[in-house]
Fold each of these.
Amino acid sequence: MALRLTGEGPCPTCHGTGAKAGTVPRMCPSCQGTGQSNRNLGSFGISEPCKECRGRGLVVDDPCPECSGSGRAMSSRTIQARIPAGVADGQRIKLPGKGAPGERGGPAGDLYVRVHVKPHPVFGRSGANLTVTVPVTFAELTLGAEVKVPSHRGAPVTVRIPPGTPNGRTFMVRGKGVRRKDGTAGNMLVTVDVMVPQNLNSKARSAIEELREATAGQDPREELLERAKEA
């Protein structure tokens, strides 16, 4: 993907020297061009950036009017960044040599890109696994069924629901998840969710009423109530 960056780069007027056109910087007489000054503290010494040249090793007597002698100016550039497969939200990608240019013509630094993954309207993610919630009917869970489930960037897959499947059960479809760095793929986790019909015709209502009468002796909350008494 292409990234548009705005940041510091070599001044186009002085080409990064910091000196006015027709002049050149001279070597710092204080640090002899090293950019470092040494201080003797008795038994040991320390090095620190030269105060006269501010660590550049060069002194500009006649500064460039465009960059005021800094040798840098704001510029825009476009770079190509390869986003690896399976990248996670918030992951940081290092692009060597794509950062800000170094001092005195030194090599450029590195650029770190933090990735934010846009949420998908259908699929969620858990590591290398994709998650999806699929609406099903009460009859499909009770009697069993084969339902079509969407897969990411592929044809729908068929998931077999055994008779008597409880609501909220999760099925695993192997190899339909996120592709990892090693080329393997995670799985797709399919969770079934009963869809309660909002409008019933007379035939459907009659059938459900018959089911309620046929299962009237079964109280699904009986065990729950008993366990609550024991607590």
Amino acid sequence: MKKKILVFTILLLMAGVGFWLWRNRPGNRTNRPLELRGNVDIREVNLGFRVSGRLAEVLRDEGDPVKAGEVLARLDDEPLRREVEQARGQLEALRARLQLVEAGNRPQEIAQARAVMREREVAFENAERLYKRQQELYSRRVVAVQERDDAEANYHEAEARRKSAAETLNLLEAGFRAEDIAQARADVSRAEAALAGAKLRVEDTVLKSPSDGVVFTRAQEAGAILQTGATVLTVSLEKPVWVRAFVSEPDLGRIHPGMKVEIFTDSRPEKPYHGQVGYISPRAEFTPRNVETPELRTSLVYRLRVVVEDADSGLRQGMPVTVVPTGEGSRGAERPGSTAGESPAAGK
């Protein structure tokens, strides 16, 4: 009896191996429906502030739906607003300085310099006459050497003061140099950039959602002191929703970018999702351990990305799915992957 059971078991195994070889021979591979196994890939984004500060409020919690541009959290912006006011005051001061150098000196300052010039000229002429008189008297030995030397010193001093007044008048009449004006303009431009940067930092105290989605995690609470870039919320984006699947090398010619596909899940096998192949990797790789496939784990496959066109909340991150190209065979009402003599969980 035991010998019969052993013989029957061996025959059954041989029949199974023979059926598998027949089913996967090249002639049959192209006739059977192509089924690709993969997982749902939903993009997530970690949201944080570009500036540091104290977290004032978080407006959304885990599981809350959000829309693109919706405010999710705020920092205390008082310190940054004070920076804006300081930058604005600095800009106004530099603008006034630019107007001053562009307009040149006031007429009153030039008139004052001319009056000083005339005064110095009168003093110089008087010192010159006194020096000539003392020089003449000295030549006749009427005055002492000291008196002649004092008159000469006063004469040279008056001459120097007259030249100084003349140079001052020339500077006031010429106005500021082109280099001074260029520097003043550069200072204004730098102050304008500083003000714009301060305003941008105030805007960065408001955290907005980049796209429609659902709050996946809430990492911070109001009152926390945050560093730049610290994650406050993680949002699972509504779009795009992709399926990351894998195709073996013999089946690579049966699929191409742009091909329409149906996507089946275990939760609703009778109502597939629809999409199209968006990308096929040019490089082969070993099948990932988490991919549900009836092929050997060590087979080389090509990764592809399927863009889901009618995704809804039924698709979750990492959910296993079966991808079937449209027109690749009749499926009837059977679940993907189920054939005669094959359980629905085959390949898991």
Amino acid sequence: MAYPLSRPGQLATDARALFYKKWLGEVLKAYEQATVFKSLIRNKSITSGKSGSFPIIGDAPDPKIFVPGVDELTSQVIGNDEVIINIDGLIVGNVMVYELDEWMSEYDVRSPYNQKLAYQMAVTTDRAIAAEITKNALNGSNRVNLASQKAKVALASAEELVDAIFAAAEKLDDNKVMGMERYLAVSPTVFYKLFKYLSAIDKDYGGQGSIATGTILELAGFKIVKTNTLSPLLNIPDTGSVTFGVDLSGDGGQKHQITVAESATGSAGILGLAFVEDAAAMLTLKDLTPEINYIPEKLSNLIVVKMAAGFGALRKEASVIIADSAATISAVV
């Protein structure tokens, strides 16, 4: 005798359709919650092809007085340029789970594994974008140093940091970067050093923040962004170096990486990135997508999270590096 079944994953004739959508939602939520930089830069999606164009509009010419009866209007030109960003390739995170282990597990394996893979994809995205923001500043020779060389971040005073942040804001002003939200990305170490410096959050000094919630909302016109992504750029050891970012060059993509080196006495490294959304861009051909496939010869489930994307720097005047003077910063090509 046949019994009608209530299938929790049923949609039309597919008994598992809603299960997949649940995983997709979990993966996308985990990714979006973990990414810090993606929403702060330019984003474009394409449906086919290998690259995308990001327009760069130049300054308008200076106006002049018109003398009636003498002058004639002549066409003036606003310069235009573009930056082409290529898709690096298919960026993939995966894990294989033996089916017996999954059966014996006392908790749902697939959902947390999907979320872990999505989180790591977010880390990769943020590293690539942060490296491109830094490259952008290097291209524009936009760098602000602490007042004095420091071997470690702990030796730098919050007052020096605040002075450097204001200098970065001044640099963006000098570069005519106006009319856009400004962001200052810092590691937790730098963030809490700033936070403890009460004048940075005291409204009497023009700052905005809250001791109760542990936040600095704005400083020198920058929205403060706290991220672990930048932590590896701190405290460069004597005669040592750190390579930061991600290498996506395996299938014709690019190396979104920088090197921070110290030649003698140690360096506090890069303490912050000041930028606006025009500093970098992310091009997406295929949004983040999860897959679960059964591999019979392995008696295992292959859990995959993938996306097709590319990253690049845009307007070289749109970002500034805040660093220690002893740090040598260069792009990896």
